[in-house]
Amino acid sequence: MASSDQSPAPTPAQGTDPTPHGQPMTMGQHVIDKGAAMMQSLTPVKQISQHVCTFASYSHDMSRQIETHHYITRQNQEFLQCAVYDAEDKKAHLIGVEYIISDRLFETLNEEEQKLWHSHAYEIKSGLWVNPRIPEMIGQPELENLAKTYGKFWCTWQVDRGDKLPMGAPALMMSPQGVKLGKIDPELVKKRDDKYNISTEAIQKSRLEIEEPEWINPQADYWKQHGKGFAIDIEETEMKLRAPFP
Predict the structure, then answer these.
(1) In terms of Cα–Cα distance, which of 166, 178, 147, 9 is closest to 95?
(2) Which of the chain's ends, N or C, has fewer CB atoms near its CB within 10 Å?
(3) In sequence order, which residues have a C-beta less than 8 Å from that of residue 3 and are 6 or more positions away?
């Protein structure tokens, strides 16, 4: 069965270009989409209020690093949810979802659950987490809060290995860190910086005054203490055959 740490067997859904196969949209489909945009509320999507560009690594293979684009909806001061894409253009792939919680909420989780989460302090302080086209001065108060948060990011489409469709099991992702395998490839950072005409190094210097969290729970970023990641294996199981109603 499928596993998040193994590539799928060669299929037509895999190749060097992750663009899905498919016929172009018809005029009728365009008409339906335009009508829906005018007549339906699309309320959850319209709550997206921020775009963040950063980087992530696969928990089971941290040598695989990707640029990510988070489109963030704020539920309240302590909980954010993000639709994660591999780019910001109209052909971007929806590759996963990340949930972000405050340090207070993180401490309410049991230890097994905490192992699936990562911290954001280094990612913020190092300048890797950026809000494209938003001046640093405007984003600074938000960054001070985010530096104390934790995230859980599931990747459902491993486009970096060429999958043309979402294949196999979801993969747990980890945030950048300043040690060992957590360091992001400088070439990947340069490519991002050139695209947005920014300097991660300069951004890092501008964030020196952002306070470090007093304590980062060692259950988060589990690999740093234990040298182990996490993968999902899909197993066949017996179905519950009892109907939920008569």
Answers:
(1) 166
(2) C
(3) 168, 169, 231, 232, 233, 234
Question: pLDDT tens digit string along 191-239?
Answer: 999 999 999 999 999 999 999 899 999 999 999 999 999 999 999 998 8
Distances in Å between the alpha carbon of 133 and those of 137, 173, 193, 201?
Answer: 12, 26, 12, 16
pTM: 0.90
Calculate the dihedral angle through the C-alpha atoms of 179, 111, 210, 63, rounding to the nearest 10 degrees.
Answer: 30
Question: CA–CA separation, 79 vs 100, rounded Å?
Answer: 6
